[in-house]
Amino acid sequence: MRDRSLRGKKTLITGAASGIGRSTALAAAGKGARLVLTDVNAEGLDATVETIRSTGGIVEVATALDISDYDAVTAFAEKVHEELGSLDVVMNIAGISTWGTVENLEHRHWKRLVDVNLMGPIHVIENFVPPMIEAKRGGALVNVSSAAGLMAFPWHAAYSASKFGLRGVSEVLRFDLARHDIDVHLVVPGAVDTPLVQTVDIVGVDRDDPRIQAWIKRFRHHAKSPDQVAEAILRGVEKGTYLIHTQFDIRFGYWWSRKFAWPYEFAMRRANDLFTSFLPRK
């Protein structure tokens, strides 16, 4: 059996400045991983690096960049490979979110979500996975999708476009990379209480509306913490699990949507009607 532990493994984590990415970086450091970190937020990334190193963790390389910029990712990969050689574990965690109905979403919303949530991970995969294959040591690729990459949540069309896409990439690579002894893990978090909850762009809706604030409060009450999600991710990597659920309700909902198509469609229609009631009346 191949050693799937992170101890001593060269591990890339994107989105390491906050939320799930930061928690995963801290947890991986605690397991002895040799970290390569990146995030678009330079100040937050520096804070993560400082915290890890202050507790004895190893950060080999940390560079602030936008993963949607292919040239920036390529230059970063060249630097990492020059200093460290090929990596052992690649974790695509960075992501953004925007919700809205199709008549409210603008082209820039669709494009930015696909650029960051789908093309960003693809840029990372293009640059870091082939050297892993060439090294013939095996390894792991972790892609963080979403429950919105499994089911049809209201107002999530643009977000789901990116997350369903990443799910498709992962499903294919799961089998393509198996012959190279590289495990692929698809993480599908449900509600997670990250800073994104307070900043997510909900197009066409007043976030200060008491009804919206009430739903955000309910979301946060139900949500898992980033630390809990990070724990689930690392546990899944160590066990070689492909589909990594972070909470039971999403696991059950996905099973239910496949086994009971008509009740699922009815529930999604009712949920959509409920969300539509929050839109300004014209």
Task: Describe this structure as you would to a colleague.
This protein is α/β, with parallel strands linked by helices. The protein has a single domain, classed as NAD(P)-binding Rossmann-like Domain (Rossmann fold), CATH 3.40.50. Helices cover 52% and strands 15% of the residues. The strands form two sheets. Strands 3-2-1-4-6-7-9 form a seven-stranded parallel β-sheet, sandwiched between helices. The protein has a two-stranded parallel sheet with strand order 5-8. Helix 3 (70-84) packs parallel to helix 4 (107-135) and helix 4 (107-135) runs parallel beside helix 5. The radius of gyration is 19 Å and the shape is globular. The mean pLDDT is 90.
List keywords for this structure.
single chain; about 280 residues; alpha/beta; seven-stranded parallel sheet; two-stranded parallel ribbon
Total helical segments: 10
Number of domains: 1
**What's the pLDDT, averaged over the residues?**
90
Main β-sheet, in a few words? 7 strands, parallel
Produce the secondary structure layout:
Blueprint: E1 10-14, H1 19-30, E2 34-39, H2 42-54, E3 58-64, H3 70-84, E4 89-92, E5 98-99, H4 107-135, E6 139-144, H5 157-176, E7 182-188, H6 196-199, E8 201-202, H7 210-222, H8 226-239, E9 243-245, H9 248-259, H10 261-276
Parallel strand pairs: 1-2, 1-4, 2-3, 4-6, 5-8, 6-7, 7-9
Helix pairs in contact: 1-2, 1-8, 3-4, 4-5, 9-10
The gist of it:
This protein is α/β, with parallel strands linked by helices and 282 residues long. Helices cover 52% and strands 15% of the residues. It has one domain (10-276): Rossmann fold (3-Layer(aba) Sandwich), CATH 3.40.50.
